[in-house]
Fold:
Amino acid sequence: MHSIQLKKDSTFIQNLESVIEKEGSFSNWELFSAAYEAELTTITPTFKGLRALEYLPHVEFLDHQISAAEQAIESMHGRAILADEVGLGKTIEAGLILKEYMVRGLVKNALILVPASLVSQWVRELNEKFYIPAVAHRKNYNWNQNVIISSLDTAKRPPHRENILEIEYDFILIDEAHKLKNHKTKNYEFVRALKKKYCLLLTATPVQNRLIEIFNLISILKPGHLGNYDSFLENYGKDRKNIKQDAYLKQLIQKVMIRNTRQNTELNNTKRNIETVWVEFTEEERSAYQSLETATGPFSSFSKITYLRELCSSREACYLSLKKVMDENKQEKILQPIVDQIGQLPHHAKAQRVVELMKKIGDEKVIIFTEYRASQLYLQWILQQHGIKSVPFRGGFKRSKKDWMKQLFENHVQVLIATEAGGEGINLQFCSHLINYDLPWNPMRLEQRIGRIHRYGQNKDVHIYNFAIRDTIEEHIMTLLYEKINLFEQVIGNLDAILAELNIGSMETELETIYAESTSVGEVKIKLDNLTSIIRHSLTNNEEENYGYS
Amino acid sequence: MAIANLNQFLHDYFSFHHCEIIENNDGVLRVQLTEEMDRALMNRPFYWHYVKKMGNKGEPMKLTLITNPNKREEEKGEWIHFGSPRLHQLINHLKENEKYTKLFQKINVTHNTALYPWLVVNIKVSYKGKYKKDEVISIGLHLVNGKMRLEMMDHLKEIPLQSTISDYCYTISPLIKLQSGYLRIEKVISNYIENQEHTWAEESLHALNEELNTLRHFYHADDNEEQMNKEIEEIKERYQPVISFEVINGGIFYLAES
Structure:
């Protein structure tokens, strides 16, 4: 008992005396007892359990989200890494945890640091879903608001930095926390210096490359939990595979990290149906494609790959690029016939196939992804011709325009045509059909695209249609790359890490190099084959490291 | 008794604040606010500022509060549930404004009757360590003979009370001063707390020490003392067991001897 602090209420009785003395205003019995009842309603009578659930009857939480929140509060005491795979609702878990602390009166002020592009989305989610009165930081705002949301980049700069470091926060949350994996960065140093009680770090990729990254993240929450820097390096080295091998290390990590994967959650219930849609070029199209393929113009072989990919997407995309080259090189004569040839093409086989598919799908919502803006416009036009309404979506839109387009899509039009998934941003669970009109050469982008609709909140099976044109560059990518490493079937969360391990900085560049440096289609095929087999090899060796969940 | 029926609670809340109930049907409550309640709840100081400046009366708003979730679709209004911001606004409004009272037992008598003073205090006790829980204690103290009564609010609920003294009644002056009466109540609560088993606090202290040891493991002999001290403070802040009392509300009640 002697080690428990006791805090008494020293003001009440004096205030009561002075009210009586002044014959001040007294409550009547009804209101007096209503206030008492109100207090009984808002207290938390037990140490454990989530009181916040009663406060949020309009949110349907998934089991793994509730247990993640319980675990973070009850066994991790409010300092945890939430490392669920993309799309399982880390934000929901974090909101629930914060709400619980607020309901219990343990958190009064909180600082939430998220990427700049996500600030308004966080504000909205916390306000609408959780009734947490969070505000975005604005110029000249005081940082000592109740719940304030800002980007890490703003917060760490003067004069904000100094102000923030003065304040003792009850709760700090950092989204996309893998940005803190390096302990020598400004970000890291800033976050370590924050005064905090509870702290959540959110990331889908807690260990991207090196094992020391997890050490650095954990040292923000619980310094010493994994020893100190030197002893950690000495014991475990740098290889992230050690997580799997060392049971003790894994156990330690599980004490501060929660990781749900699609495989261990009920989200697995909604399936992905993948369908490859093969399209044949018409005669005219094929001959234009071949002329371009064999042409030698004033452009690098890298650029030519781009033009070929564009032609597989739409006449417009390719035409515009070639036109630009010609404008820049006035004497250029070789391209003119090809440009004319493309200009005369009546349609595009792939777009017409989209129209056919749309008729088959009926009146369900469909999202179409293309790599090119020209194709986006063209698709919008051709759908319009067939009485199908659509809205465009681009990464460059302002937040408000994005929201508006999303609203239109949800309530008024059947199709959304997007050029960019934007690793973050719109969630479109109300839609379950996705057309990959052309495939990105970066597999992570593909996963982000699918993640827009196949995520927490989706209650239908998801249909993915991948378009590719026979006997073109698209066929190679489809059959030699994507289908071989089974990319469509499953989420490969750690593909990033695998590529890094293989020393492949960007898949896109790697592919372009293969094409540019090969002299024949045969050579391309062999090289692609080699690439896929090494990726597959790493994947099987490296299956989802199930660290972090029990 | 905590709030069990939200519709009833809202109905009572607004009628006690003299707002007209326009309609109350199947979990949909429509009320006409008074100017005072509009000012307290609707957060539109500029409206009232200008209306008054122009010498107008102003028009308080109406509220539609839906407690029946099945009516949410068909009716336009605010859905009130235990987490809704409006409910918490009302609750906070109550907690802030209804702290002090002085009440008299209402009795019909034709001969002189004495009413005895009671100090009634409702206290919230919070236990905070690794986790937190609260407990509410309602105590009454007879300010003449020093008798104490627990669960005082439940007892008071059975007695008709009013803000003015009934005819033929007179009050007895307290022998125990308010301050010392309050100290007696505090003492009782302290005893109650001391006699409890505090396993929760032991567990918290255990976790506290464990984390402090872990932390020391992280730092080399003398590097970065400032950072380490900051982190030690954070750990203490998070685990140090604390018990606090806070008075919810209280006042003087003049009651007849039963």
Notes: The longest strand of chain B covers residues 113-128. The radius of gyration of chain B is 25 Å. Residues 119 and 252 of chain B are 5 Å apart (CA to CA).
